Predict the 3D structure of the following.
Amino acid sequence: MTSSDWSPAFTARVAEQLRRARKAAGLTVAAASEGCTSVGLPIPAATITNLELGRRTSVDLGEFLVLSQVYGVPPITLLFPLDTEPTVAALPGQSIPTWDALAWFTGETRLDQPAPEGSPREVLDLFRAHSDAVATALTSARMSKERRRKAALVTDAGRRDALLETVAAYEELAGEDRRELRAFRDRMRGRGLTPPPLPDELGGEPSTEAQA
C-alpha cells in the first residue's frame, strides 16, 4: 500500500466499523442522526450514509466520537477492530498486529526503560498508576465493609469477637491503601497535575482538595 492509498483505506476501514456498529446497535441511519443531535452534535443522515458508502475519504474527529457514543462502542475499537482484522496498517506502509497497533495508540506498548519524567508517556503511565491505586483502595474498602457486615450477623459472642479482630485487620489495610492513594494524589498535584475525583466510597473529593 502506497502512502497516498493509506489514508483513504484507513478511513474506509473506520467507516465499515461504524456501519457495523450502527447495525449492531439496531439503529437506522435516521435514528443514528437523531442520536447525534441528542448528544449535542447534529450529523445529517446524508453525512452518515456518505461515510458508510465511501463517498467521504476522511472522518471528522468530532463526528467520529459522537457516533461512537451513539453506537455505544469504545472509539478505539472502531480504529483498530480486534474482532475482524488480525493486522492493520497503523501508519503508511506499516502493517502490524491489530493489538500492537491498539497498544501503540493507547501508550501501552512496553518500554525497555521508564519514560522520561514529564514526557507525555510518563504522564499517561502516572494516571494509569493512579487508576490502579484507586482500584486497590476500593477493593480493600469493600472487603472490610463486607467483613464487618458478616460479623454483625453472627450471634455467638466468641465467634463474633474473633471475626471483629479479622475485621480490624482488613480495616487497617483499607486505611493504609487510602493513605497511600492520598499521598499519590498529593505527589501528582505537586507536579501540577489534577488527579480525577475520587469515588464516593473512598470519601469523594472535598472541594478544598479539588482546588489544592
In short: Strands lie at 87-91, 94-97. The chain is about 65% helix and 5% strand.
